[in-house]
Amino acid sequence: MIEWVSKRYGDHTVFRNANLTIERGDKIAFVGRNGEGKSTLVKCMMKEIDYEGTLTLGHNVQIGYFAQNQASLLDESLTVFQTIDDVAKGEIRNKIKDLLGAFMFGGENSTKKVKVLSGGERTRLAMIKLLLEPVNLLILDEPTNYLDMKTKDILKSALQDFDGTLIVVSHDRDFLDGLVTKVYEFGNQKITEHLEGIYEFMERKKMENLRELERKN
Fold first, then answer.
1. pLDDT at 186 > cutoff 80
2. Would the CA dihedral through 98, 130, 86, 74 be positive or negative?
3. Are the beta carbons of 58 and 90 closer than 8 angstroms?
4. What is the pTM of this model?
5. How many CB atoms lie under 10 A from the CB of residue 33?
6. Distance between CA atoms of 158 and 100, rounded to whole angstroms?
7. For 102, how many CA atoms within 13 A lie in the half-sphere containing its CB?
8. Which terminus in the chain has less CB density within 10 A, N or C?
9. What is the pLDDT of residues 87-98, one digit of tens each?
């Protein structure tokens, strides 16, 4: 689905000679210290920044992207329902009410204007919007920020049911557990592939928390 060979980004080298291939259906976590290139690689995939190297997307790859500022990009003049109604096309329209209910926007809550929503509510709404788009590759950059435990569980369940390819940039081990089956570790200007779940990865690294990567060389 995606092939990537890269040397450097801009004037600052974040990783060199990184070679990776992401296959259809892969569920992958990008982990590592801040500043090691996780979000940079995502931005390269989204063609938001320039880079040296080769990045090839497979045929008919449709990307859905959740950035850390995604919730702030919602149109504040629309209601919750209008926000979703604008993006849902075809068969997926049948899921609108179910998803709104699952993400705690059922009943009268669907008529709220975006401008009155809290940060967590906006993040939830941005997630529903993304899940209703006709995509086969989801890229989520720190998606659990501002989400409470219940909403995290709802989102995780929805992503487990997603039958496309998933890339998650996150430090949230509980969210990643049972969701991803491959880990790409960013550090020391390289990307290392680990064919295992997040807890197996952490156990091998003797870590209790993914934030410990910040302190490791």
1. yes
2. positive
3. no
4. 0.87
5. 18
6. 12
7. 15
8. C
9. 877 777 777 888
Alpha-carbon span 16 to 6, nearest angstrom: 6
For tokens 């960013």, what's the residue? Answer: 186
Q: Which two tokens stand for residue 209?
A: 């928390």
User: Residue 36 class from Cβ within 10 Å (0-12 exposed, 13-18 middle, 19+ buried)?
Assistant: buried
Dist. CA 171–CA 58, nearest whole Å: 28
Contact 187, 36 (CB under 8 A): yes
Ordered alpha helix ranges (H), the chain? 38-45, 80-85, 96-102, 119-132, 149-161, 173-176, 198-204
As a whole number of angstroms, the distance between CA 78 and CA 92 comes to 20
Side by side, which strands form the sheet with 53-57? 18-22, 2-6, 53-57
Give the pLDDT of residue 145: 83
Return the ∠ at Cα 99 (arms to 112 and 147), rounded to 5°. 70
Q: Residue 5: pLDDT band by 50, 70, 90 thresholds?
A: low
Give tens-digit pLDDT for 135-144.
999 999 999 8
Q: C-alpha distances in angstroms, 3 versus 32, 56, 121?
A: 20, 5, 35
